[in-house]
Each structure stands twice: as C-alpha cells, then as structure tokens.
Amino acid sequence: MSSGPAITLGAVNVEADEPRALATFWAQLLGGAVGAENDGFAFVSAREPGGFAMFFQRRSDPRPDRQGQHLDLTVPWGAREAEVARAVALGATHRWDVLDEVPWVQWSTLSDPEGNLFCIAEHPPAT
C-alpha cells in the first residue's frame, strides 16, 4: 500500500480543431454536460462523482501522424455492439474489432469526429 496521496484521473485534455463540436460529441457519448466554454476552450463535466471530465482546447500545431495514447472505455458484457452503434450514430467512425486476441476482453476501436482513436471494450463475466 502506498503512503503517498491517492491520485485519481480528474480530466482528459484533448486538442481539437473545433473544441465546442468535439466536446458536444464526447458529452453525448459519455453522458456529461458541456460546461464552461471560452474562446477556443470547452469543458465536459464528469457524468458522476469520481468520473473523469474532459477539457478541449484549440489545436495549436498540426495533428501528429500517430496518436500516442487513447481512451479505453468499458461497457457491460453484451453491450459493446450497441454502444459502438450509438457512438457511430453520434459521429464516430468504426475502425476495427478485436474479438479473440485474449480471453478476458473484446473491443472495438473507433475514432471520434476529429480522428482521435478510442476503444469500447467488454469483459466477460467471471466464472
């Protein structure tokens, strides 16, 4: 057990060509609300206490060729396909599925309306 402070994820920061539009997509997908907005910045609140918020700021440099990290979102077993369809209806693009690489998770990789990758994963119930 660590003797340091308990660290939690407060917010994910994303550079965007259109911060308000991308914040709206993520608020609809995750269930938060677009809150503070100011000249190239937008904030999406956490859906519930202990959840994470998202902060969007106008992109200052060209988009990198490769994305170094992405969000892995988890849904209950059996809900992945419906949530992927919902994300696509909101403006995401379905990229690929990984259904049999490992036995403890299946996931779909998508990109948001600006091309940022994210995954929607489901884990089988414990037996």
UniProtKB/TrEMBL annotation:
Pfam families: Glyoxalase_6. Residues 8-123 form the VOC domain. It comes from the Bacteria. InterPro entries: Glyas_Bleomycin-R_OHBP_Dase, Glyoxalase_6, VOC_core. This is VOC family protein.
